[in-house]
Amino acid sequence: MKRLIVPVAALVALPMLSGCVRTAASIVTAPVRVAGKAVDWTTTSQSEADEKRGRALRKRDEQLGKLNRSYQKNTRDCQNGSNAACERAHDDYAAMQDLRDRSI
Fold it and tell me: Which of 12, 45, 68, 98 has the most beta carbons within 10 angstroms of its beta carbon?
């Protein structure tokens, strides 16, 4: 009779233990999932890096365009005899060179 009770008890307990096994498995794998999400949040994908670089290049080109227009205007005014415009043209040219020399 005792030999029969152990297998029957195991069969009865089996459905109840399946939930425990799933819970235990989720507890064991939780640190790995959390670490994976942390890595995703802290790393930048290649496409994100490309987008960021593209935005930076467009912003730099926009700044260069503004400086170039200002430089051209100040150069014309300088040729017409304005010393202040000559200084502004010089400053604009230096700013353009500095912006070109910076790496992005």
Answer: 68
Q: What is the mean pLDDT of residues 84-94?
A: 95
Say if residues 68 and 93 touch (Cβ distance below 8 Å). no
Assigned token pair, 59: 């912003």
**pTM of the predicted model over 0.70:** no
CB 74 within 8 A of CB 92: yes
pLDDT single digits (tens) 20-40: 656 666 676 767 777 777 766
81: left (phi over 0), alpha (psi -120 to 50) or beta: left
Tokens (6 digits) for 61 = 């080109």
